[in-house]
Amino acid sequence: MVSQADEEIMNANLARMANDNTSLGRMSRVMAYSMKINEMKELTNKLQAWVGLVNYHFLDAEKKLRKLRNEARPYEEEMDETAIEGLLDCRGLDSTTGTKNEKLQRLLYQVDYFYNDH
Question: Which of these, 116, 110, 115, 92, lies nearest to 36 by C-alpha position?
Fold first, then answer.
């Protein structure tokens, strides 16, 4: 398990690398986005399990999910079609049809649909 301090250092280093206008910077942006998507998916699963239970765990997770979603938005433009298809495939979603934007929207729908109900 990674400590909170180690996680903050890791995130800061990744953010610093992501600001570089190089291929490494671009890969870092894709990695950061993918990590945020994975974390959002995990939180979404927890929230779905807690639907109907109004407790501080639910509220904390929802707040964190909203924060992650906002943090991920700047990386959306960096995602190339191959990266999007890989994320769609690993989540069992259709990666064969649609434009890059349509594929990205299918991927992000997993998180965004939650807000329509809450």
Answer: 110
Sorted by sequence, the CB contacts under 8 Å of residue 48 that are 6+ apart come out as 114
Nearest to 18 by CA among 75, 81, 85: 75
- In this predicted model, what pLDDT tens digit does every residue of 76-113 receive, in sequence order? 666 666 666 666 665 566 667 777 667 666 666 654 55
Q: Are 73 and 37 in contact (CB under 8 A)?
A: no
Q: How many CB atoms lie within 10 A of CB 43?
A: 21
**34 within 8 A of 71, measured Cβ to Cβ:** no
The model's pTM is: 0.39
Structure tokens at 10: 């890791």
